[in-house]
Amino acid sequence: MLAIETVGLTKYYGKVRGIIDVSLAVGEGDVFGFVGPNGAGKTTTIRTLLSLIHPTSGRVSLLGRPVTRGGGELYRQVGYVPAEVRCYPEMTGQEILDYAASFYQRGDREWLRSLAERLGFDASRPFRTYSHGNRKKLGIIQALLHRPRLLILDEPTSGLDPLVRLELFRLLQELSGQGVTVFFSTHVLEEVERICTRVGVIREGRLIHVSQVGELPGRNMRIITVRLAGGEAPGGELSGWARPQPVEGKAGYYQFNVSAPVNELLARLARLDLEYVKITDPSIEDLLLAVYERGGEGDVRG
């Protein structure tokens, strides 16, 4: 059974584009990364999945059932973390969690305590005093308190410190191992590589690529910045392999992109008389460029 299925999902805000003809298929137990730059349509897609906004056209099914306005009993099996978590400002975190738990037949206080401990969340303080990161922790715990079968997260790591991010990734992997489906939106490629099994790329409202994470065009790209002794330009050592370009505003620094095995990359760099070298992973914009250069190849329905 598919945990998420959309067919021709389209949303316009008046004449303004939201998403266009998005067709997705996410299997049960998948950890699916939904990737795109800000404004690409990630949040619109998620809010349409959850019937928080209604599509202009197309249809949605979650956990094998068509989504209707309001969602009804179906949403008792779904957890959702919005990009911005908002609650009653004077209520404490614990009061908010108790209130949320009251909508379900039975609560598990030990499960809530475990989640708060793992994420380092202090539930005793009023919501208005929480930082962005603590509000996100509260949203994550609230989404998980009823042990959903499907978890939908809209950029859940924003505001979290690195150690909490790692703990969240471990938690999501554990849940996936128990059969929970995770739909994870982000604009950070490293997060997708860390926890996702499959990935969809959205740009300007259109789904342009779906594949296994290891099959992403540009995934093995590396961005190299170098400065040679004396500041001279790299020459024949890189001929036919890379085309270094001057770095604007940094005299003597050059940058180039390569997709090559690590050993080959290091062997090539070792031939240069280097004063400085920096190797970085591609940004989401670099990834999108690689997808476009491949003509948007991949099964765009998944």
Q: How would you characterize the overall build of this protein?
A:
The chain has 302 residues and is α/β, with parallel strands linked by helices. It folds into two domains: 2-215, 3-Layer(aba) Sandwich (Rossmann fold), CATH 3.40.50; 221-281, Alpha-Beta Plaits, CATH 3.30.70. Helices cover 27% and strands 29% of the residues. It has helices at residues 42-49, 93-101, 109-119, 132-144, 162-177, 189-195, 262-270, 284-293, and strands at 2-13, 16-27, 31-35, 57-62, 65-66, 78-81, 150-154, 181-186, 198-203, 206-212, 221-228, 245-246, 253-259, 274-280. The chain has a six-stranded mixed sheet with strand order 6-7-8-3-9-10, sandwiched between helices. A hairpin with a 6-residue loop joins β12 (245-246) and β13 (253-259). α3 packs antiparallel against α4 (132-144). The longest helix has 16 residues, at 162-177. The protein is globular, with a radius of gyration of 22 Å. The relative contact order is 0.15.
How would you describe this structure in keywords?
27% helix, 29% strand, 302 residues, Rossmann fold, 2 domains, six-stranded mixed beta sheet, alpha/beta, four-stranded antiparallel beta sheet
Q: How many domain units?
A: 2
Mean pLDDT: 88
| The CATH H-level homologous superfamily of the largest domain | P-loop containing nucleotide triphosphate hydrolases
What's the CATH class of the largest domain, please? Alpha Beta
The helix/strand class is alpha/beta
Oligomer: single chain
How many β-strands, per DSSP? Answer: 14
How much of the sequence is in beta strands?
25-35%
